[in-house]
Amino acid sequence: MTVAIASGKGGTGKTTVAINLALSLPGPIQLLDCDVEEPNCAIFLKPVMGPAQSIGIPVPQVDESRCSACGECGTFCRYHAIVSFTTIPLVFPELCHGCGGCTLVCPTGAIREEIRSIGTIEEGATGSIAFLQGRLNVGEAMSVPLIRALKSKARREGVVILDCPPGTSCPVISAMRGSDFVVLVTEPTPFGLNDLRLAVEVVRSLGLPFGVVINRADVGDLGVRRYCDDQGIPILMELPDDRRIAEAYSRGLPAAEVIPGVRALFEALGARIAEAAKSRVFAAHSAGSRLDA
Amino acid sequence: MKIVVTAQEETLGAPVDERFGRAAKFLVYDTKTKVSEAVDNTLSQEAAQGAGIQAAEIVSRLGGECLLTGHCGPKAFRALTAAGIRVYNGASGTVGEAITAFQAGKLALASEADVEGHW
After folding, report:
1. Which of A41, A87, A143, B61 has the smallest number of CB atoms closer than 10 Å to its CB?
2. Which CATH number fits domain B2-103: 3.30.420.130, 3.40.50.1400, 3.40.50.720, 3.40.50.150?
3. Is there a contact between A95 and B49 if contact means CB atoms under 8 Å apart?
4. A80: chain B residues, CB-CB within 8 Å
């Protein structure tokens, strides 16, 4: 079973939920840090990591002696990574999504591909948890191929937990797509509610079953709970605004390992997710449309 | 000669759109016939990335030889140059005023991009 931990808003507690869930469930567990722009699960897990493996995407390189300047490559590329003005094409590697289409449509075989590095993947382990993280090169915009490469390394066994990036666009969609269940982490404030609504739209567009975890549950107002009630969205867990949890976090310690009672909360969360994912009842609101990642 | 001007609306009296890649419209002015034609640029405006390159493709297709605009970023400038289009930055006022200024030699030919991408 693959469980994606996501949120519209950053800083709601995705990593806290992902880490503590991983530590509270019976193995085998795989935890993937898909927040490749700022992976931070390792700070809490302190895994023993293997060497970094470079991940790249194929980008076109034009052999000018073979190019007939027909412009087919530029007509094909929807990202304008290769353009031709009835001239030898110009290549903008940073816009290339690595689909390889230009090499296929080129009638003279003038385009070959070279690999442009976008980041790295590292594999490691801590206790019974297999841990993988992606790390995008600083300044790199193309995170989706790295997230896909990271997910492709997960074995199809046990529970796979994905710590997703925040937001509502390509990175989070590529991270959560194909999951059996999505946990949306929010906080009970107007800011949390605003971004939860956006995240719910994304998950519904993808047609995935989902539920909500409210972090710092005893602050703020009733907006998030009312919204979930109205929309028939299950609240899977409420994590209290407990000073001890904040202190553990500030020291880089997982709450489930140092605070009594926290592990039991996450065990219960795991059971609710397993039950909900099996029945897929929460996909009822799916809009049936698809988002392009 | 065809001059392309970035415009906020579809007439010669419309203000110049300072942006190139994400300009609202392109006004194509033919100096021979003195006829102008407006072309929509919504597709480039909505592009997640590469708007300037796409806009350069449109200007090239329209047969533009000179481009009058406010600012031009590095990718757009590279594409326009490859297409053999001369770029004149710093156009202001209405489209008509920009064309008059260009014809009076008051706009300088750009030799490089004058802004960063995504300015």
Report:
1. B61
2. 3.30.420.130
3. yes
4. 47, 49-50, 53-54, 57
- Mean pLDDT, to the nearest integer, of A121-130? 95
Q: What is the pTM of this model?
A: 0.80
Whether the Cβ atoms of residue B85 and residue B64 lie closer than 8 Å to each other: yes
Please determine, for residue B114, whether its predicted confidence score (pLDDT) is greater than 90: no
Nearest CA in chain A to B63: A85
Residue A163, pLDDT score: 98
Whether A75 contacts chain B with CB within 8 A = no
> Do residue A83 and residue B49 have CB atoms under 8 angstroms apart?
no
* Closest in B54, B79, B84 to A90, CB measured: B79
Residues of chain B with Cβ-Cβ distance to A90 below 8 Å are 78-79, 82
Q: Answer for the pair A2, A178: CB distance below 8 angstroms, yes or no.
A: yes
CB contact under 8 A, B82 and A90: yes
Distances (CA, A) of A109 to A64, A99, B57: 11, 16, 23
Q: A residues 186-245 near B, CB within 8 Å?
A: none
Give contacts of B57 with chain A, Cβ < 8 Å. Answer: 74, 80, 83, 85
Minimal CA–CA distance to B44: which of B66, B26, B68, B27? B26
Q: Does the structure's ipTM exceed the value 0.85? A: no
- Amino acid letter for position A237: M
Asked if A129 and A57 touch (Cβ cutoff 8 Å), the reply is: no
Residue A141 pLDDT level (bands cut at 50, 70, 90):
confident
- Ordered structural domains, chain A, with CATH: 2-27+158-285 (3.40.50.300), 56-117 (3.30.70.20)
Nearest Cα to A203, choosing from A276, A283, A272?
A283
Angle made by CA atoms A59, A60, A63, in degrees to the nearest 5: 150
Residue B50 sits at the chain A interface (C-beta within 8 Å): yes
How many residues in total does chain B contain? 119
Q: For A177, how many CA atoms within 13 A lie in the half-sphere containing its CB? A: 17
